[in-house]
Amino acid sequence: MMNVIEFFRNLPQKKCHKCGHAMVEKADCYGNLCDECDHPAR
Ligand SMILES: [Zn+2]
């Protein structure tokens, strides 16, 4: 019953290379930057 949790726990946690903030899975689209650092309005 813990398969999903174990799966995510075993994944390396992605972090923003700029601010070091931990990112969730959609971060793949932004390379190594979080939403704040890769904000389109900047
Ligand atoms: Zn960032």
UniProtKB/TrEMBL annotation:
Pfam family for this entry, one: YhfH
Top-level taxon of origin: Bacteria
Name of the protein in its database record: Protein YhfH
Organism: Lentibacillus salinarum
Lineage, top ranks: Bacteria, Bacillati, Bacillota, Bacilli, Bacillales
